Amino acid sequence: QVQLVESGGGLVQPGGSLRLSCATSGSTFSIGAMAWYRQAPGKQRELVARITTTGSTNYADSVKGRFTISRDNAKNTVYLQMTSLKPEDTAVYYCHNSQGYWGQGTQVTVSS
């Protein structure tokens, strides 16, 4: 059974940082691309960042230069380092794997 479990969300002030983690089990993590998506209230889910098995990355324009996606194949975990956070980054952040599975999401709230 494939499981993706996100953690690391929370409340942070504008300009702050958070690091999200997504631990996976039951899947061939090391041979698939991984991605982070987010969904804000009343908006569609959108791709935030993606990383391939070889470490190639791509980002949404809105987070370029502020967010960094990385992976640790030995730990079957993907990370999202978020810096210079803005109120518009507030959303539920989801982990997604190449097999089409989703995590349960973790809430990120950026507010003073």
Describe this structure in words.
- The protein is 0% helix and 49% strand.
- It has 112 residues and is mainly β.
- The protein is globular and about 40 Å long.
- The chain is built from no helices and 10 strands.
- The chain has strands spanning 3-7, 10-12, 18-25, 34-39, 46-51, 57-59, 67-72, 77-82, 91-97, 106-110.
- It has a 6-stranded mixed β-sheet, with no helix packed on it. A 4-stranded antiparallel β-sheet has the order 1-3-8-7, with no helix packed on it.
Summarize the structure.
The protein is mostly beta strands. Helices cover 0% and strands 49% of the residues.
Oligomer: single chain
Number of helices: 0
Rounded to an integer in angstroms, the radius of gyration calculated over CA atoms is 13 Å
Strand content: over 45%
Number of strands: 10
Give the structural class: mainly beta
- Order of strands across the biggest sheet? 2-10-9-4-5-6
Q: How far apart are the first and last residues' alpha carbons, in Å?
A: 40 Å
Main sheet: strands, sense, barrel: 6 strands, mixed
> What is the H/E string?
EEEEEEEEEE
Helix share, percent: under 10%
How would you describe the shape? globular
Uncertain regions spanning at least 5 consecutive residues: none
Mean pLDDT: 94
